Known about the structure:
Shape: globular
Strand content: 15-25%
Radius of gyration: 22 Å
Number of helices: 8
Strand order of the largest sheet: 6-5-7-8-4-9
Mean pLDDT: 85
Amino acid sequence: MDGRLIDHQVVSADLAAPAVSRVKVIADLNLGERRLPQDGRTSFVVHGRQVDVRVATSPTVCGESAVLRILDRSAVPLDLDTLGLSADIVGLLRRAARTAHGLFLITGPTGSGKTTTLYSLLQTFTGSGKKVLSVEDPVEYHFEHVSQTQVAPQLGLTFAAALRSFLRQDPDVILVGEIRDPETAAVAVQAAMTGHFVLASVHANDSLAVLPRLQDMGVEPYQLAAGFRGAVAQRLVRRLCPRCAAPGPPTEAERQFIAALGETPPAEFIHPVAVSTATVGLPGSTPHR
């Protein structure tokens, strides 16, 4: 939770296999396949809100491991103005969305909100009269104004294959969930150079490392010079829960940090409260942070 691994409850090991089997049934996975990783999804309604769950299983030496990723669309409004980005960055993203063609990338570590930022950019095309296509793995949220494609490598439907088909469907905007391999990078750059605006995510340490990363994938410098429009790197920052944060005197480290900024440390700081495992993950509850 918020980037930290927290022990919620310890139960008997005898419950592990039945629990994983139940999760696999709900996610429509192959119950008899325990040797290979599997991915699936399910959804349910909590207090009138639709919640999507991505399920991933993986074999380990002690049995199967199951991870459930909860996606509550109502908890994160897909709007650039509400993501917590600075005004300068929001202005940069809006200018990028008005670009007629080219490649614009979002980078950051896994779980840093890249897809949320990309989806918020897609919202800016609503009512614009532009045809928007996307290829993703997985399709996390559905949009009425976007034709979304889920990759299926086992059927030969990869990012690169989907991108090639998109070029014959007269799109204005193309969203690529992630540029992972040289083939996808080559087709994405080709699309950006032939009159399409391509939005994508890529794994790199920061925005300056995006270009060397694409070159490592085989993209030529002259192609980047012609088609690359910009890149944004992002991270998630923990925020204090407004309901359970407690005031207290600043620590010595906080005093030194404020003093280094040339400011006078305040008499009180707001500090996080230790997480209570009794309240983590309960349906309908708000986890403490």
